[in-house]
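step 4 of 6: structure.
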Amino acid sequence: MLKTFKIGGVHPEENKFSADQPAEVLDFSKQVIIPLSQSLGAPSKAIVEKGDLIKVGQLIAKGESFISSNIHSSVSGKVLKVDQVLDQSGYRRPAIFINVDGDEWIEGIDRSSEIKKEITLTKEEIVKKVHELGIVGLGGATFPSHVKLMVPEGKKAEVLIINGVECEPYLTADHRLMLENGEEVLIGTSILMKGLGVNRAIIGIENNKTDAIANLAKLALNFDGIEIETLKVQYPQGGEKQLIDTVINRQVPSGKLPIEVGAVVNNVGTAFAVYEAVQKNKPLIERTVTVTGKGVSKPGNYKVRIGTSINTLIEKVGGLPENTGKIVSGGPMMGKALNSIDVPVVKGTSGVLLFEEEEARRIEPTNCIRCGKCITVCPMGLEPVLIAQYAESEMWEEVEAERAMDCIECGSCQYTCPAARPLLDYIRLGKFKVGQIIRIRSKK
Amino acid sequence: MNDIIIYSVISLSLIGIIAAIILHLVAQKFKVIEDPRIDEVEEILPAANCGGCGFPGCRNFSEALVKSAHDKKTIEGLNCPVGGNDVMAIAAELLGLAAEEKEPLIAVIRCSGSHANAPKKVHYDGPATCAFAHNLSSGESGCPYGCLGCGDCVAACDFDAIYMDKTTGLPVVKDNCVACGACVIACPRDIIELRNRGKKDRKIFVSCINEEKGGVARKNCRVACIGCSKCFNVCSFDAITMNNNLAYIDYEKCKLCRKCVVECPTHAIHELNFPARKEKKVEVEKTVESKKVADNAAEIKK
Amino acid sequence: MNLLTVSGSPHVHGDNSTKKIMYGVAFAMIPTLLVSVYFFGLDAIRVTLLSVFACMLFEWIIQKYLIKGPVTITDGSAIISGILLAFNVPSNIPTWIIIIGAFVTIGIAKMSFGGLGKNPFNPALVGRVFLLISFPVQMTSWPKPSALFNSLADAVTGPTPLGHLKEELKVGRTVQDILENGTSWTVDGINYIYKIPDYMDQLMGNLGGSLGEISALALILGGIYMLMRKIISWHIPVSFIGSVIIFTGILWVVNPDIYVNPGFHLITGGLMLGAIFMATDMVSSPMSFKGQLIFGLGCGVLTVIIRIWGAYPEGVSFAILIMNAFVPLINRSIKPKRFGEVAR
């Protein structure tokens, strides 16, 4: 029996159309728009002005608070303006507009394809490098990586877990990365281990990526302390808390961070980015994005410079199909529906999904039949139906008492609901309101 | 047989008497002495328990009134918007004080982004609550300040004083609005404002709260305030302030001269309940839709 | 291009739907229906069709003219209520009683609470109990099962095994005596003999009773289908039937003369129908697995108490209805195990 997490979970249709498409480097477009809020935490502050000439890899925005990250230019050219742009949140937020001119890189970045295996930097230097070069978690939540590497006092990291689960249907970016850049991922893992001061790392991969498992298992023989763990296909196994439960059988207590049980989780994409930053001095200016959908003629994986318009990506896969009804950034379970096609790719963009008109519209909700299926599938052991009902009736104290803040918004409840009720929508609303109430309370 | 009846009557009566004694003793012991004026004041309040006064219900408000009258000898700052000046005058009389006259207020919708003025750019699919739609994205029209049209304000209204106009997709405030402020709190975008009712219900206000730059705002909505300051320049009473590309008319200073209304290039400034202009015909674009709105409003009034 | 849709995640939906669940349950009832047609003839078809039709009609009338809301009679819930109601009445019941039953089922037990998903009690059971209390004679004269399509004139009524046992135990006979020798009595000079059928007949359904409760085998078949389709979970049937077995087993061990063995309890009467189709009704049963186990346990214990010490020979319907009333309490007090509750 393959391992999986203990509570709940669903198994949506996988639809990994682009699994055998090698990641292709996408030519950068004429203009890139680099949003200033690309990671969890405070937005970064722009340090360039209109008219500045910049090169690839140059720092253009600084993360000033502890939980925020630096942003580097992904192209060379001239800053057109610093202005608001409609980003993935559906709102207009500040961004740096750059007109591309050539492809001139700043000094010190090793652009060769040669693999550098030897880790020369010390623990502190690694953390500093990860911080400076703007590495964030590439699994989707974009949590600044240097924060994860700094273990708070009194806690001890015992094991590093690398998330190669990619439990979201459709997405194949991490899969391709593990296949094509397996060695780099493993070196990145070793670097993270050194940065954390642990001597054990486990890479968890779901059983639907057998070729990636085989590739990494073969390569891992040359690395000390790295194990490859094959996991049962189950959503949301890629969730941090679920993955820890799966791999080392420990449950992170409510409201606590993984370090509480001695674990630190990083995505394979992050491990790769860490490798590039530490060994090659290359900031996070590029990521792999899956572009797919049932109506897409040539689904594929692309290495894209941050700030490229999603429109460019869609043109690459054969243009927007006629009957497109919804564009989603990220996976179908947790991704964000976009308001417009002209939205830039950011560090957290793992995929672009094009849904056809019929798939895009939701099924008309009917009465709840109290079947309890949402309770059965909730990976956090919550009662989604209750939280949603309380939120619908604006009973915020009850929403909080039902531990809505534990919800990881994986969407399993809404996915499985036979009455197609918008459970997660109401839970999100409840979380938002409860969050406000908690903030007001803590101020008092 | 007779015995049974007699015994049951006796035992039940005994239980009744003992219970009555206990109840009486408990009532004596836990008696709360209340100012009788609280009941009297509560009696004259509207009993809508709407919370417009800032208290959870009418009882709490009357307690607050009596307490304030007792402690501070004034009821300043306490006002029942629903009852208005009449009720407050009676309440003050009961408490032996004088009530201050308050201008009656009414809720005003500061958005004109109807389906025609701010066409849909995306389709929102989800629960019909503005609170969630606001969290999700900037809305169907793309204007991050505009009305989302899901009707949280309508749901919040206890007085049936606001309704959703199907043709425009915007809420409309009816004349029976009591300015309790429930809709103001319900609106996640703070579009609704309580404004002076004005003489003969006449009001002038900027029907937009978009703080974006003119071009951007205009792209999403035909009738957005673009922050051109024309109204600001034409106002001779200093009633208009410009802040973040947005004009705001202070209703306490506004003298209802209507100069700004004519001046506004995007027709973002609205006038309500004024007689039609005769001599100087203003080029106010009357779309079919706005006529429908007027018709609807007239119908509701009837 | 069409307008893009913006909505919260998730953007995909599983293939679950209320309709699928409801029609799945209806499908699972087919074996039972066939058995009852085999033993009770055309009357079984008459009762079932009538009940389903009346239930759908009442739902349509109420939704269309009283509530003036959307009409949802095609979602299958009215069909299930109709079949279940028919399963709970004898096959020779007059048409007008079925229609009254359907009205109570849909009009009172379901729609007055707000329709599908809002009813605290199982609608078909409310209808059945209403009929049982209002028309005890018609509801408890069971036609003897006979071969397929027997002419209706020949139908003779007889008792159910449970009812018979209870009556005879009252006059002081032992269980063994009743089971082995049967009973004979004389009315108007004609001798009647009734012997409780043996276990094989009971399992197949060759015994007196309501339409749907006679064949334990067919009911179990339906239950297995629903388990495989994941329409129901095992928790309620297992804890319901299990608690009946344990409770009656203890009593049987204590005194086999007055308490019949658990096997008899298991396959006679409405236990199987109740445990598989009635108690597992999603709307009126608890939502969490733990709650379902408690619910089943309560149903089982109450059933045995009513069967052995109560006034009625059969207690499944009452037991389920009583436990239905406890469901909100169970839902409130039994919480699923939260993630991370037991750290390390």
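step 5 of 6: annotate
 - The first helix of chain A runs from residue 123 to 132.
 - The first strand of chain A starts at residue 24 and ends at 25.
step 6 of 6: archive
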